[in-house]
């Protein structure tokens, strides 16, 4: 049985990869800074480790996984764009890849970002065509890691794919992100205050994003791959889909917040490689994903109310 190591396994995206990895017949080892969670699917072996600590790569030397799916990174909203932690994650990721190669690893898939691309006012991102000229430390760290990882993979003979994530939403999202802030407000019956919402983006439901990464891992595709829905959507349409899922469109207040002047009006993804080479396409519509997202947030809000009453 093929052994895979998943990092960031309890995170927003990583948790969604556990079930698809098991369904693919893999021996799944999950790494997290937290103990094995109660929601973990049966059959996953959990390892508690902080990959930022020197020596954590010894776990790979002990496990000798043949496949690696690396999500772990510091993505705290409002912090990660300029955080010095990005440099530490580059260092930790390189240690991870070195130990992976030393253990005879065969294929690695790492999570990149659309922030690696050069952002203009209208940017449609195509791998190998659109320039990679990141304007943030986060984007530069990811882009630099990709360059070094590609050279390392060629030197040691393992396959490497780099999945560039665009805009994602769903259960367990941080409330500091767009989807999390809107969904949490709607679930609590509060006004969801946003920008004008005319910006065009590519939104993908987080559990499906995780499924796409598993498909990429199971393929033989190498190099950068945009991981997105391929369905350009106005932010206001995305926000309204969440509101309509709970029947509270009146709670949306577009234009209540200023739009950032540094963000492009259009930022979308070409998904030809994901669709044609990896063979993956999303199956949920935005309406369906919004409904499932709001069901989770509404359940969480009910738990908060019950907890407050119990206290």
Describe this structure in words.
The protein folds into two domains: 188 residues, NAD(P)-binding Rossmann-like Domain (Rossmann fold, 3-Layer(aba) Sandwich), CATH 3.40.50; 85 residues, UDP-galactose 4-epimerase, domain 1, CATH 3.90.25. 37% of the residues lie in helices and 20% in strands. The strands form four sheets. It has a seven-stranded parallel β-sheet, sandwiched between helices. A three-stranded mixed β-sheet has the order 8-10-12. The protein has a two-stranded parallel ribbon with strand order 6-14.
Number of strands: 14
Report helical residue fraction.
Answer: 25-40%
CATH-assigned fold name of the largest domain: Rossmann fold
**What does the overall shape look like?**
globular
Task: Pick out the low-confidence regions.
Answer: none
> Mean pLDDT, rounded to whole units?
96
Give the number of domains.
Answer: 2
Beta-strand content estimate? 15-25%
Largest sheet: 7 strands, parallel
- Series of H and E elements: EHEEHEHEEHEEHEEHEEHEEHH
Give the strand line-up of the largest sheet: 3-2-1-4-5-7-11
Structural class: alpha/beta
- Enumerate how many helices there are, as a single number: 9
The CATH class of the largest domain, by name, is Alpha Beta
CATH architecture heading of the largest domain: 3-Layer(aba) Sandwich
Q: Could you give the distance between the termini?
A: 48 Å
**Alpha-carbon Rg, integer:** 19 Å
The CATH homologous superfamily of the largest domain is named NAD(P)-binding Rossmann-like Domain
């Amino acid at each position: 049985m093929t052994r895979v190591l998943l990092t960031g396994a309890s995170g927003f995206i990583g948790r969604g990869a556990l079930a698809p990895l098991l369904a693919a017949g893999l021996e799944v080892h999950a790494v997290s800074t937290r103990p094995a969670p109660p929601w973990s699917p049966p059959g996953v072996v959990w390892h508690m480790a902080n990959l930022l600590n020197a020596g954590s790569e010894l776990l790979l030397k002990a496990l000798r996984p043949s496949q690696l799916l690396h999500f772990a990174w510091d993505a705290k909203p409002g912090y990660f764009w300029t955080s010095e932690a990005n440099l530490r994650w580059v260092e930790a990721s390189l240690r991870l890849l070195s130990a992976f190669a030393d253990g005879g690893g065969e294929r690695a898939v790492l999570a990149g970002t659309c922030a690696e691309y050069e952002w203009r006012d209208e940017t449609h991102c195509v791998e190998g065509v659109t320039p990679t000229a990141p304007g943030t430390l986060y984007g530069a760290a990811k882009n630099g890691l990709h360059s070094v990882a590609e050279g390392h993979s060629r030197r040691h003979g393992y396959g490497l794919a780099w999945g560039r994530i665009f805009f994602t939403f769903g259960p367990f999202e941080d409330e500091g992100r767009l989807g999390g802030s809107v969904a949490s407000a709607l679930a609590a019956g509060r006004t969801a205050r946003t920008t004008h919402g005319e910006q065009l983006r590519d939104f993908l439901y987080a559990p499906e994003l995780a499924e796409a990464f598993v498909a990429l891992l199971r393929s033989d595709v190498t190099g950068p791959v945009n991981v997105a829905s391929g369905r350009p959507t106005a932010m206001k349409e995305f926000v309204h889909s969440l509101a309509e899922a709970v029947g509270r469109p009146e709670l949306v207040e577009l234009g209540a917040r200023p739009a950032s002047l540094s963000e492009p009006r259009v930022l979308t993804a070409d998904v030809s490689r994901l669709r044609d080479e990896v063979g993956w396409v999303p199956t949920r519509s935005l309406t369906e994903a919004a409904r499932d997202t709001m069901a989770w947030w509404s359940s969480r809000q009910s738990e908060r109310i019950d907890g407050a009453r119990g206290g």
